[in-house]
Amino acid sequence: MLSKKIESALNKQVELEGNSSQYYLAMASWAETQGMDGVAQFLYGHADEERMHMIKLIKFINERGGHGIVPATTAPPKTFKSVQAAFELVLSHEIKVSTEINKLVETCLKERDYTTHNFLQWYVSEQIEEEALARKVLDKLKLIGGEKGGLYLFDRDLQALAAADAADATAEK
Ligand code: OFO
Predict the structure, then answer these.
(1) The pTM is what?
(2) Which of 5, 61, 71, 81 has its CA 20 to 30 A from that of 31?
């Protein structure tokens, strides 16, 4: 059984994951309007993953006798200064998510809720991967420095990455 404190902390995380999903969805839609189809596919996939993170939390809360609350969504920005600026936002957002996950882990230890602590380890590892991926993408963008030919190739790279991620996700089902 979840304590009220842990239940509400987990529901705050549900909200953050839901907002992450909307945020990346807005970036994906914007990138598509800029002709960056690979970037768009990558970010659509990322938005789906964040939604899956939200649902995983909701189900866990319910399984442990709590109530996973579906959050209201906050409107994300409609446009972004550049692809690089968008990925800078992705990285800073993921860092924020990691910080919140770490705080949650700490709260679980203080409350001696080892089951939730164990469940959250999946999110801890996921955040390491997501931060590393965002850094890798940003490093490539910095190398390109806004040069058109480079951006074209970058877009194709991200298309391939999005297709590989989608294949992995299907294999995991
Ligand atoms: Fe990348 O935010 Fe979910 O965990």
Answers:
(1) 0.93
(2) 71
